[in-house]
Each structure stands twice: as structure tokens, then as C-alpha cells.
Amino acid sequence: MYRSGLRDLEIHYVSNPRWYFSRAEKILIPIVESYIELYGIKKFLRGLASPIFFDALTVASYLDEIEGASTTIVTIVLKNVLRPETGLAVVGGKRTEGYRVPVELEKVGKIFGFSEKKMEYLKYVSRIVAKVDNVAIQDGFELYFHLMVLSSDGEWTIIQQGIKSLENLVRRYHWTSINIKNFIEEPHTGIVAMRKEEHVIDMTSRRSRESRESIVQLVTKDTSKLKGFYRYSQSKGQLTLLDQEFGDNVRFEIPKINWSNIESLIKQQPKDFEELLLHRGVGIKTMRFLVFASIEVYHVKPSFEDPAIILKELYKPQNMHEDRWIYEMMDAVRESSLEMFMKKTCLNRLYNFFFTQES
């Protein structure tokens, strides 16, 4: 399974968004209904976890390729068309709507007949996924979009999006419950981007496994060493880490932190990295401080590589002809209730975008 799910996009459609939405809705609803009729709700749910599938929805709906605001438009349409009676439900969305996931989950859970235990688990999933993409992967993008799609049997797909305001870029993250092994080590259905970010801390990489373990050890067993590093780093101001010792020329600033957050973490004694990550006081700065402390104390480093696949590599023609999602989307367009002219237009857009990319 390729790692997709994270992608760099530009934000557009800031003017006349209603027109874009109206046009996209007229196209998307027949295509989504057709796809579900052909392949079923579980296949559609799994498709949403693939950035290729999601981009196919975007391209077919006449949104200009894969730009950032199209995510909002597509998901609003999905939220309108995917009702619980279809076997799928959509909760969350942009900014404040993302924070309403627990409340919306309660309503959906009653309709689907989920047990209290199942509801608590789904709320946990929403929290840990957001914490991973915002704190465990530090790529410079701030999350502002959190969408969860649920099936009546409790399977889920999550789409998140983060923003880098100064550069007007967003990055998209995809997850699914299908075949997921854990929430910590390479849990995304994939990661793709328009470019590689130069300075990234990826605690979800397999190469970060030892770093994750050492951080837990620091706050549970070697707390005196952790406090010593804290006193040194904070007395010097914002230090810059030049990671030449490990053969990399990586520069990061060691941030100022509130020691009380570390004290509460020590008091909690987390059993593993997942429990540590979910602790209320562990944010971006605290995690970065713990990463650098583990480098100093144990000489253990995480992965500093951006886990994203470059977009142009993913969409090379020789790769795309092996991807079933595009062919299934084309089948859905052909069998939809769209007018013949619109079917031809959608099919042409899909083919031109996915199969005629320059290598």
C-alpha cells in the first residue's frame, strides 16, 4: 500500500464559492450515487482514504484540479448526500465544525445503534488522529479541517487538512480503519505532496521507533536527566540543533517550554508513546523539546525526512494505469444519471489529468 494522504495544495475559490459549489454539487451527487450503487458503501468509504480517489472526485466535479478549497467544497457535498439511511454518515468539517465531531458522533451513534463503548472508541480515534497529524508529524502545517466518514458497522475514514498561511498552502491527511495496525507508526493510507518540506520531524516513521521509545523512557525512568537537559536548554535561550553528528545537516530550534507540562506527564507515567502523545500538555513545543532531549541523553534521533511522496511522481502515467480507483470512478461516471455531454466532459477531465501527466 503506498503512503498517500498528505499533500500540499493551494487555496483558491475565495471568490464566488457558491457558484463553484452549485456546479460541483450537480455533478458529484449523481457520480457518488452511481459509485455506491456499483461498488457499495464500504468501497466508497475506503476510496475516500485514497488521495487519488478523492482527487478524482475533485477533477470530475469541475473543480480546478486539486487546489485546497476544493476539499471543503467536495466534503460539503458529501455531507449533504451521505445520510445515515444510506449506511454512511459524515461528521466534522472546517474549523469550528471539526470541533463538533464528538457531538455529531453522538447523534450518528444513536441512529446506527452503536454501543457506548463503540462511541467512546470513535471519539478516541478522532482525538488521536488529530494529535498525530498536528504534533507527531511536525511539518509546519496547522490543522484547520477534520472530517470523519462512518459506516453503519463502525468503520471510518478521516480526512484532515492543515494550512501554512504565509505561503497560502494546505496539506491533506487521509486515514482509514480498514487494515490499520496502530495510530503511531506509519498509520496513514499514504502521504503525497507538491514538494518536500526541508524541516520536518516525523515521529510516525519506522525510523523513529527508537526515538519514540526513548522519549517514553525519559519521562518515566530518567526524569533527572530530562530535568538537567531542561535547565541547560532553557538557560541558553532558544538553542539551534545542528544534527551533524548523525550525518545530517538539520537545523531546529529547541523551544522554550512550560516545565509543569513535563511534570504532569511524569506524574502520569505513560505506558507508551500513544498515551504520552494524547496527554493534554503535550503540544508541538513539548514534543519537540522531548525529541531533542532524547537526542542529547540517548543519542537517538527520529526521522527528519518529509514522509510525503512528490505529487508528480504519484501521477506518472505508468503508475496511474495500475490504479483501480480511476477506472472505477470512470465506470461510475458512465453509469450515472448525468447527461451524455457532461459524462463525456467528466471522463475527458479524468483521463487528461491522470493519464497525460508529463513524466
Model description:
The chain has 359 residues and is an alpha+beta fold. Helices cover 51% and strands 15% of the residues. Helix 1 crosses helix 4, helix 1 (17-39) crosses helix 15 (324-334) and helix 6 (101-112) packs antiparallel against helix 7. The radius of gyration is 22 Å and the shape is globular.
Short synopsis of the structure:
The chain is α+β, with helices and mostly antiparallel strands.
N- to C-terminal distance: 22 Å
Arrangement of strands in the largest sheet: 1-6-5-4-2
User: What's the mean pLDDT score?
Assistant: 87
Judged by helices, strands and strand pairing, the structural class is alpha+beta
DSSP summary: helix tally: 16
Query: Which consecutive residue ranges, at least 5 long each, have pLDDT under 50?
Result: 1-5
Beta-strand percentage range: 5-15%
Number of domains: 2
Write down the secondary-structure element order. Answer: EHHHHEHHHEEEEEEHHEEHHHEHHHH
Helix content: 40-55%
Q: Which of globular, elongated, flat, extended, rod-shaped describes the shape?
A: globular
Integer-rounded radius of gyration? 22 Å
Note the main sheet. 5 strands, antiparallel
Number of strands: 11
